[in-house]
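Re: [ENG-882] Designed sequences occasionally contain unexpected residues at chain ends

Forwarding the minimal case from QA. C-alpha cells:
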C-alpha cells in the first residue's frame, strides 16, 4: 500500500477502543491531497511514478533504449535504411519500434499539413512518442525529413544525454531528384506541390549529428542500404546500446 494511503478500520475493529495487536487504528483525518501542477494547457496533472523501472526493461531486452532519428531530404533513403536497420536489429535479437513519416501521417498526425507550424507539431508529437518508447528500453527508429534544425534540437533537448542519436543522410538534392520514387520532385518542379523541401522549402542541415551517412565511397561507388544500416549497427554496438543477447534465443 503506498505511504500516502491511510488504512481504514475494518468491521472487526472498534474505533472507540485502543487497538489491540494486529488491529489498525482508524483514521479520522483524511490524507492531504497529492500535489498537482499545470503543464502547458494541461491543468492539475501529476506524474505517476512507474514501478517497473527503465533499467529493468533494458536488462530484459539486452539493449539501451534510444531514439535513432533519421533526417534528410525526401528520397535520401530514410525509410529504406531505417527499415533495413530494423531488420538487422531484429535478426540480432533486439526490440525495435519504427515511426515512419508517411505512416504517422496516416493516423496520429493526419490532421497536420506541411506549413512550418504543422511540421513543427508533427516533429514534436513524434519526438514525444519516441521519447516514451526509448525510455521503455526500445530502440526507436524515426524517419522524418524534419527539415528544421530547431524542431530536431527541441526533441533532443527533451531527452537525456545519449538517448537521442541524429542520423543525417547527406544525400545531395540532385541524387534525390533522380531517384524520386514517389514522383514528388517532378510534381514540385511542375508547381503542383507547394512547401516541398529542397525545392520551395528549406532543409537545414544538422550541425552535430552523431552519424552522417554519405551516399558514395571514395571511389564514387554507391553504398547499398544494407551497408549504410550496418554502419549504424556497428556504432550502436561500439557505443554499448546493444548488449549481448543469450545465444539460446532464436528470431
Ligand atoms: N543506396 C541507397 N540507399 C537508400 N535508398 C536507395 C539507395 N539506392 C537506391 N535507393 C532508393 O531510393 C529511394 C529512397 O526512398 P525512401 O522512401 O527510402 O526515401 P525517404 O528519405 O524515406 O523519403 P521521404 O522523405 O519522401 O519519405 C528508394 O526507392 C530506394 O530504393
Ligand atoms: Mg520515408
Amino acid at each position: 500500500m503506498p505511504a500516502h494511503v491511510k488504512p481504514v478500520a475494518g468491521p472487526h475493529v472498534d474505533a472507540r477502543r485502543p487497538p489491540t495487536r494486529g488491529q489498525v487504528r482508524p483514521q479520522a483525518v483524511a490524507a492531504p491531497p497529492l500535489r498537482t501542477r499545470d503543464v502547458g494547457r494541461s491543468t492539475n496533472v501529476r506524474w505517476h511514478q512507474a514501478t517497473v523501472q527503465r533499467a529493468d526493461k533494458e536488462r530484459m531486452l539486452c539493449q539501451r533504449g534510444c531514439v535513432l532519428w533519421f533526417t534528410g531530404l525526401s528520397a535520401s533513403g530514410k525509410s529504406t535504411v531505417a527499415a533495413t536497420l530494423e531488420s538487422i536489429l531484429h535478426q540480432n535479437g533486439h526490440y525495435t519500434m519504427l515511426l515512419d513519416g508517411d505512416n504517422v501521417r496516416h493516423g496520429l498526425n493526419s490532421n497536420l499539413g506541411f506549413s512550418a507550424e504543422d511540421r513543427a507539431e508533427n516533429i514534436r508529437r513524434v519526438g514525444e512518442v519516441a521519447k516514451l518508447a526509448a525510455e521503455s528500453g526500445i530502440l526507436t527508429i524515426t524517419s522524418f525529413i524534419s527539415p528544421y534544425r530547431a524542431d530536431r534540437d527541441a526533441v533532443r533537448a527533451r531527452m537525456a544525454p545519449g538517448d537521442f542519436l541524429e542520423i543525417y543522410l547527406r544525400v545531395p538534392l540532385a541524387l534525390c531528384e533522380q531517384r524520386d520514387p514517389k514522383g514528388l520532385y517532378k510534381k514540385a518542379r511542375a508547381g503542383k506541390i507547394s512547401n516541398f523541401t529542397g525545392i520551395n522549402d528549406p532543409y537545414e542541415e544538422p550541425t552535430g549529428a552523431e552519424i552522417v551517412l554519405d551516399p558514395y565511397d571514395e571511389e564514387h561507388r554507391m553504398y547499398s542500404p544494407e551497408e549504410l544500416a550496418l554502419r549504424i549497427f556497428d556504432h550502436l554496438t561500439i557505443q554499448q546500446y546493444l548488449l549481448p543477447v543469450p545465444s539460446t534465443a532464436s528470431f
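QA comment: On inspection the terminal residues look reasonable. The chain has a mean pLDDT of 91. Proposing we downgrade this to a documentation issue.
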